[in-house]
Every structure is written in structure tokens, then in C-alpha cells.
Amino acid sequence: MRSSVLRATASAAGALLALALLAAPPPATAAGPSAPARPAAASPAEGDGCDPIDPAACLLPFPSDWYTRPDPSTPTGRRVALRTTLRNSIGIPVDPAEWNRSDGFSPGSMLLARVPGVDVGRSGVAPITDIGSSLRPDAPVVIVDTATGERVPYWAELDANADTADRRALIVRPARNLREGHHYAVAFRNLRGADGAAIAPGAAFARILGPDLPAADPLRARQRAERAVLAGLARHGVGRAGLYLAWDFTVASRQGLSGRMLKIRDDALAGLGDGSPGFAVTQVADDVDEQIGREVKGFLLAPSYLDQPGGPPGSAFRYGADGLPSRLPGNLQLVAFQCEIPKSAFTKAARPALYGHGLLGKESEVGAGNVKAMAAEHGFAFCATKWSGMADEDIPNVLTALADISRFRTVADRLQQGMLNFIVLGRAMTRGFARDKAFQDGAGKPLIDPSAGLAYDGNSQGGIMGGALTAVSPDLRRSVLGVPAMNYSTLLNRSADFPTYEQVLSRFYPDKLDQQIGLGLIQMLWDRGEANGYAWHMTDRPLPGTPKHRVLMHIAFGDHQVAPVAAEVEARTIGARVHAPALTPGRSPDKVPFWDLPALGADPYDGSALVLWDSGSPAPPLTNTPPTEGRDPHSDPRGAALARRQKAVFLSTGQVVDVCGGAPCVITP
After folding, report:
1. How far is it, in rounded angstroms, from Cα 404 to Cα 93?
2. Nearest-angstrom CA–CA distance, 608 and 311
3. pLDDT tens digits for 544-571?
4. Is 666 left (phi over 0), alpha (psi -120 to 50) or beta?
5. What three-state secondary structure class fits 402?
6. Residue 68 is inside which H or E element, if any?
7. Mean pLDDT in residue range 250-256
8. 287: how many CB neighbours lie within 10 A of its CB?
9. CA angle, corner 149, sides to 146 and 155, nearest 5?
10. Pairing state of beta strands 243-250 and 292-303?
11. Residue 21 — pLDDT band, cuts 50, 70, 90?
12. DSSP-derived secondary structure for 462-482
């Protein structure tokens, strides 16, 4: 999810590490950082805690309030209470302790169930090409907000990666994120097989639907819980006729999703006050090329809230008594940075901007040709640091997290520390760098103008993570998200970058149904460190202590690395409009292209927007598999001068200008 050269470099490193793990699996005991205090005892014994609705697939359906308990201390009134039986191939169970800190499930949850023999076409289930049909009154899959009665749009698909029909997940993906803290009921009804015959509910669910079971019956408790689900559906017009399966779940609250990040942000910035973090310049190069007048490298110090000194890969949050991250006194993270200052800054000070690198990359990507061109053409000084948690140094730890999902908290926690590092770098750019001679001309005049306001531009992973950074930053007002999306549980199977890393996941979780459950579990933690957990607050519904923002999303049609369909979900959630016409007629396979995304209208448009850039690549597959046909257009938007001009105007003024002359934005590769 980055330029082809960087993608090849990280893929090669990942492949070597993946092969090493495949050849030598880890020991049969989970090793990791010091464990935080657990909110509830975990019992991962086989068969313990499974939903009896589907005896052949523990944890399904998922997500489900069967795996929560009442907790009046949380904003939702519930707390996740998993006692998971998901185990890897060497017998290590997923330790649910970190999940059990949550007060609900992901706002981007894919809904997972097993429906042996279902034919989604014969059943009329809404496909990825016709999201609007998911809201039909007679839709066979219904997701309803039990408080408001609002129906949730979605598309559904059978897992195209499954080896056998019996272990193939039916995946329902919301087309707009679910509301934080809300309670939802789900119904599958009138499902049919390939022969058109109705599919009867499983034996357990059929008994649950029947007369009251005796107190000693193992299904009695499940039946009692199901009564409330059925009543909630009935209140909103969904009865029992043709019902195959029904369940409910609660979405995590705003506090549950972003509370950790806001705690470390507020604590760190309180320590800085009105000043700059400490930093040291280690290298200065002048007249780098025809575009860049000065390149500056160095380090700054950021407070670290991780449980190991300096917060290296594999560390996780150190929690305090309040259940939020707590800093060990004196714990600091050494944060490398690199800045590219255009030659024009020696005539007129440049606008400061943060740059976000691609998948498992590093800060030196700020020296890429397209970033230098943006700086030189439009007077921006770009500075970058690593996305701690998903940088080059994190590759081994990411692979171990795919081998033992319990370790994924080490990725999610470092991602939040990484966002803090970006915020601290932004403070240095606007409150400290201008006073250092490395950022001044020969006469002592600053080369960066802090009064111009801090901006953000990132690509690929930098577009994904940049959405989360935008939502929590008190200093950003406008961000450009290049070839972005959100929700890795949707993205991974659809990315050409994933197969290398999927080797490790498949070695340690070989069952494809378990893999989808694992991705659903991982997303609950990933939400804390990527845009999916922050999307509702990225633009007009800001988080506490944070201003409103505007976001410009640049999408590559047919992208091999970041699925455009997931970018559309993000755009709907943040309230963005789409440049229209977005594509030439016939390019999109959708019945209604860009469903529920209104056109920009006025030119220039004051607000957040999605602009699609088409360089002729084929449309993506309609399944949850990566593109394999044609060239990858992933890097095309950032390489186009027109796109850079649109970005520059937006970052400077907040306006989206039509640089494509009222036509689709077409790029000649």
C-alpha cells in the first residue's frame, strides 16, 4: 500500500520473515510484554463460552451480545466478556483480556455467520454492486438500530477464500459505519439454496424459536436472550416468518474507541504547554536537487505510554488504575524525523505539512518524487516520522501478531503512540523548528511559516492512518488522504499486499472461517489506531478538545492495494461528497455508482470530498479477493500534477476545485 519500490522492499522483508516463521513456529507459550491488569478473568478452555446457536462454529454469529455482560460503569452499559475458543495451530488460545476492556464491538464490524448451502443470488441478498437493495422492505438480511428503527445499508458476500462450503462465512459489511454506542438487531430470513428451495434454520435455532424450554435445557438461557432480540425486530416490522437466524450486538462507545488515544494526547500536550518538544538536528543537506533547497533529519522526544522503556516494537500500553494508559515517569520515545523544504521557501516561507508514509514504511518516504514535487510546485515544507506500530521496524512484531492474535494489542497500542508522535512532530514544526538555524536561511529568516497553519498529506497507509490522526489532532484543520480507506477487516483480503503476510495467518490459523473470526477480533483492537474507530469524528462531529476538520480523499479506480469500496464506506461515514461525474459511463459495475454519496455541486466546493482518479485499470473483483488483472494504479493520483494542484488549493483554502473541467478525472499513466 505504497509506491511500487517501497512495496517491493517491505514485501521482500515480509516474505523472508514469513518464511522463517513458517519454517520455525514459535514456542507453545505466548510471550509478550508485561500484561496489564485484566478487567475480567479469562477462561479459554475448549468449548467454554460458545454461542450454542451454531455448535459447529464457536463465536458465530459475530459480533454478538452473547459475548458481553451488563456493566453500568461503561457508557454503553455493557462490557465485552469473551471466553474465546479460537486457537492457533500450535494450541495457543486467544487471550481475551484486551478485548474484554471494550464496551462493545467495532463500528465497522463485518457480521459473520455460517449458512451452509446458501445461494446469495437466489436469496436476493444485496451484493456489492447494489447496496441500495439492502434497504428493501423484504430484504433477506436486515440490520436495524433497535432504538431508532434506522435500517443499516450493507452488502453481503460469501468468503471467496474458503476451502469448503461448510466452513464458508457469509459476510455482511455495513456500507456506512454503525453508530457508536448503539444497539443493533440482525435477521437472516427467506434464504434459499442453489435449487431455490428455502433453507430451514439450524436445529438449535429452531428449538430456540419454539415453545419455552425447560430450565434444565442447555438452550434455555439462549432462548431467553433471544426473546428480547425477536421483540426488538418485531417492533420494527421484522417478524418470525421465514427466519433463519437472528441476534443482537452493541457497538463500542466513543469513549471506548478513542478514550485511550485522547488520554495520551491530552497528557502529553499538557506537559508541553505552549512550547515545542525537545529535538536535535543530526543532518542538514542543502541544494538536494532542483526542487528541494534543504533536507533536515533529526530526532525529537515524545512522552511514551508503552510498558517498555522507549516503546520498542512488541511493547503495549502500561495501564493505570483508571483503565487508561499511564506513563512510567521519565519514559520517552526517540522519534526520528525527516523534512523536505522547497527552494521556494528561501524566497517565501513554506506552509508546514505532515506527511504520512505507506505500509510498513518509514519517514524517508517524505523524500519520494511526488512529495518533493508537491513541495516545490506549491510551497509546502513536509516533515515525516514513522507510523510506530506499522513501520519497517514493526514487521517482525506484526508477523508474530498474525501467528498469535493475542499479541495484536502490541500493534494497536503502538499505533496510538505513533499518532501521538505525529502530533508532537506537528508541534515542533509550528512552535520550535523556526527558531533553529537548520530551518532558517542565511539571514536567520524562518523557512517554515507557522502562521500558515499545519496541514496533512499522506498516501496508502498514510491515508488510512491519516484519517485517525486528523480526528484526534488539535492542530490540523485540513487533511488530504491519498488512496485511503478504513477498516482492515475489509481491506486485507482485497489487497495485493496481503498474500505474503497471509502465509503466516494461514499457517497458524489454517481454517478460513477462523481467519474471518480472527479478522473480526483484530479489528476491535485496530479501531483504536486506525481511521475506522475515529471516522464519525473526522470532520463535523469533532472529538473533545479537537476542532472540526475538512478532508479530501483521492481514490485510484481499480486500486490493487487499497480497496476503493472501503473508501466509499469511509466517505459516507464522514459526510463527504463525490466529484461528479466520477467515472465515464460503463466503467463502474455498480447499479448505482457511488450510492448515497451526493455530488459536490458548487465549484469550488466548501467541504469534505472524494475524488476518483481513473488511469484505465480494470474494475476490482466483486469478491473479497485482491485484483490481479491490469496494472496497479495505486500511485497514479499522487503522481499527477492536476491532483497535486487540487490538493494544494484544498490544504491552503479548504476548497475543492474542479481541476478536471466538469469531466471524470482521467490520468494517462
Report:
1. 8
2. 35
3. 999 999 999 999 999 999 999 999 999 9
4. beta
5. helix
6. strand 68-70
7. 98
8. 10
9. 90
10. unpaired
11. low
12. HHHHHHHHHHH-SS-SEEEEE
CA 502 to each of CA 14, 403, 497: distance values in angstroms, whole numbers, following the listed order: 10, 10, 9
Across 9-30, b (16+ Cβ under 10 Å) vs e yields: bbbeebeebbeebeeeebeeeb
Q: Would you list the domain boundaries of the chain?
A: 65-252, 255-666
Q: Which CATH number fits domain 255-666: 3.50.50.60, 3.40.640.10, 3.40.50.150, 3.40.50.1820?
A: 3.40.50.1820
Instruction: Tell me how crowded residue 222 is: count the other CB atoms within 10 A of its CB.
Output: 19
Total-model pTM: 0.94
The residues pairing with 610 across neighbouring beta strands, listed in sequence order, are 553, 578
Distance CA 490, CA 493 (A): 7
**DSSP 8-state secondary structure symbol assigned to residue 66:** G
DSSP conformational letter for 301: E
pLDDT digits (tens, 9 = 90+) for 524-550: 999 999 999 999 999 999 999 999 999
Peptide bond into 52 cis (omega under 30): no
- Within 13 Å of residue 622, how many CA atoms lie on the same side as its CB? 13
Report CA 89 to chain centroid distance, whole Å: 27
Distance CA 634, CA 667 (A): 12
Cβ atoms of 337 and 385 within 8 Å: the answer is yes
Angle at which helices 254-272 and 408-431 pack, to 10 degrees? 40
Cell 496533512 -> residue: 456
H-helix segments, 555-599 = 564-574
Q: What is the mean pLDDT of the chain?
A: 93
Cα-based distances in Å from 15 to 2, 466, 497, 501, 592: 17, 26, 11, 7, 39
Q: How far apart are CA 573 and CA 530, in angstroms?
A: 14
Instruction: State the burial class of residue 76 (Cβ atoms within 10 Å of its Cβ: 0-12, 13-18, 19+).
Output: buried
Report the amino acid identity of residue 566: A
Collect all residues with Cβ–Cβ distance below 8 Å to 162 and sequence separation of at least 6: 168, 169, 512, 513
State the DSSP code for 415.
H
Residue 493 predicted with pLDDT over 60: yes
Residues 185-240 have pLDDT tens digits of: 999 999 999 999 999 999 999 999 999 999 999 999 999 999 999 999 999 999 99
Q: Which residues, 6+ apart, have CB-to-CB distance to 41 below 8 Å?
A: none
List of residues 6+ apart from 7 with CB closer than 8 A: 1, 358, 359, 497, 561
In the chain, the percentage of residues whose pLDDT exceeds 90 is: 92
Q: Coil, strand or helix: which one is 191?
A: coil
In the numeric block, the cell 486528523 is attached to 470
